[in-house]
Write a structure and sequence with these properties.
Layout: E1 8-17, E2 20-26, E3 29-34, E4 55-63, E5 69-72, E6 91-94, E7 103-106, H1 132-155
Parallel strand pairs: 3-5
Antiparallel strand pairs: 1-2, 1-4, 2-3, 4-5, 6-7
InterPro entries: NA-bd_OB-fold, Ribos_protein_bS1-like, S1_domain
Biased composition (Gly residues): 94-103
Organism: Paenibacillus paeoniae
Length: 166
């Protein structure tokens, strides 16, 4: 059986990796469903969506010259004309609603640096922990001290940029 791009087929999941799942189509022909082609929403772990021996409907999205077959589960789903999947939902937390209002998006309970944060205390000062403004003012103070120290050290030496000679 010739595999053509755009064909919708049924296959059996034969292997699961961290980057996708291998699907046996028929006659020993195997293709890969990349993790980004498993579902419309974000897939963190393939094992949350698929299991070995699951029968899935897939669409052939590409066939390489070397015989590799790219498959998609999310493109195999029949949708009405003009229907688009809803955008991923992100939970908003924090203070302020406008630009620069301290808005944060919940990414599984983590802030942008990957550190966990507490939804209940978001936007409120936490006593004992310095706020962003406190950290920023401390950084600026330290930075100015370091710059002035560097200037003092380079002015006394010859060859410093625009240094005064004594």
């Amino acid at each position: 059986m010739a595999i053509e791009v755009g064909a919708k087929l049924e296959g059996k999941v034969t292997g699961i990796t961290h980057f996708g799942a291998f699907v046996d189509l028929s006659g020993g022909v195997t293709g890969l469903v990349h993790i980004s082609e498993i579902a419309d929403n974000y897939v963190k772990d393939v094992k949350d969506h698929l299991k070995i021996d699951d029968v899935v409907k897939v669409k052939v999205i590409n066939v390489d010259k070397d015989g590799k077959i790219g498959l998609s589960i999310k493109q195999a789903i029949d949708r009405p004309e003009g229907h688009q999947p809803p955008p991923p939902q992100r939970e908003r937390t924090g203070a302020g609603g406008g630009p620069g209002g301290g808005e944060r998006f919940n990414r599984g309970g983590q802030d942008r640096g990957g550190r966990p944060f507490n939804k209940q205390s978001a936007g409120r000062p936490s006593y004992g922990k310095p706020s962003f403004e406190d950290k920023m003012s401390r950084f600026l103070k330290d930075s100015e001290e370091r710059i002035s120290s560097l200037k003092k050290n380079t002015e006394g030496k010859r060859g410093g940029r625009g240094a005064k000679r004594v």
